[in-house]
Amino acid sequence: MNNYKNQTKLSRFIKNNATLLVIIFCVFAILSLVLVSYLVTPDVPVDNPNGGIPDPDDNTNVNNGNQNNEPTTKPEPQPIVETFSYPLEFVSVGMEHCDGQEVIFVYNSTLNTWRNHKGVDLMAEEGATVSAMKSGEIVEIGNSYELGWYVVVDHGDGVVATYASLAEPQVVKGQKVVKGEKIGQASTSASYEFSQGAHLHLEIEQNGESVDPIKFIENQSK
Ligand SMILES: [Zn+2]
Predict the structure, then answer these.
(1) Cα of 175 to ligand 1 centre, how many Å?
(2) What CA–CA distance (Å, rounded) separates 55 from 220?
(3) How high is the mean pLDDT of the chain?
(4) pLDDT one-digit tens code per residue, 167-179
(5) What totals of helices (H) and strands (E) does the chain contain, helices first?
(6) Nearby residues for ligand 1 (ion, Cβ within 5 Å)
(7) Which CATH architecture is the domain 106-220 placed in?
(8) Domain coordinates of the chain in residue numbers?
(9) How far is the CA of 141 from the centre of ligand 1 (A)?
(10) How far apart are alpha carbons 214 and 64 in whole angstroms?
(11) Ligand 1 mean position to 222 CA, how many Å?
(12) How many CA atoms lie less than 13 Å away from 109 in the CB half-sphere?
């Protein structure tokens, strides 16, 4: 009898609240769907906490265009090797250099005799510009009857050059010069070589030894 009464109450409750029950069922269904869709969403990769968005402050994966991932190294700057150049535009060689072996003496037309010649004579127009063959420092300026006005330049590395048969120099002792800088003008000031006309008498010593300026310059210019 009691069971019958309870069943009657239940069926009456369901009839009276059918709409409410349907709404509650629908709410549970929707919540279930939301929960399931959240659970099946793929996990964010652990090694990329930004979910695939590049972090502008993260440089670990930036290779600066280096496709081989090789370390970027700057090439070592190569030292600039300064070579020797001729000190003027000469048209011919006058008296050659005597090396004491192949050429012992050359004929000196001014003195009308065969004698030693430590330099080489580069013929030029009177007043032609004589320039430094390489950078260096002027260590001596002088005048002698034999060589006329001369300028001695220490070019470094044991190379000292004497530029002679010049017009009176406009440079000073101790002056630093760069390659190609004017240090004098060709003239006939060397009395022992006067009859050749205007020229540059050029001597070069390397580690104290007189060398043929022509061979030296050409070897040093390669
Ligand atoms: Zn000479």
Answers:
(1) 25
(2) 57
(3) 80
(4) 999 999 999 999 9
(5) 3, 11
(6) 119, 121, 193, 201
(7) Distorted Sandwich (2.70)
(8) 1-73, 106-220
(9) 17
(10) 52
(11) 25
(12) 8
